Amino acid sequence: MSDHLADERAIEQLLYRYARGVDRNDLDVVRSCYWDEGFDDHMGFTGTADEFCAWLAIVLTRVDAITHQFTNVSVQVASDATTASCDAYCLNACVWKLGNGTERHLLSCLAYIDTLHQRGGEWRLLHRRCRRLWSRMEEFPSWDDSAPT
Helix count (H) and strand count (E) of the chain? Predict the structure, then answer.
């Protein structure tokens, strides 16, 4: 018999590890969150986990700062304790440098709908669907934190 609370905690830690990997541009960490046959459907991108990481590497070259803050997380572990589903909401703040002395700030609420499998005691993503529920975008003059105050 599986300890469902421990499984839920492990899945929550997987979400945090994924967010940390994206926020720190550590794609090896992001990739480690997916099984080899993992699949991602991510706001305009659809493909394998490897293809997703390659796409994300390109996207992140344009990002100056990013953070993912998970809020409501609902995990349902199947009775066999080898599969689970997870619905999680995430506040995502992103700063895009526009190269013309301005930057774009984007605040979004994301919904992650995940199917996960446990193998050898480890939970990873098998299928992820990410949708933007709402967003707000504004442009500002670029902040130069190296300038004297």
Answer: 3, 6
- List pLDDT tens digits, range 106-127: 999 999 999 999 999 999 999 9
Give buried/exposed letters for 107-122 (b at 16+ CB in 10 A, else e).
Answer: ebebebebebbbeeee
Q: Spell out the domains of the chain, with CATH numbers in brackets.
A: 4-141 (3.10.450.50)
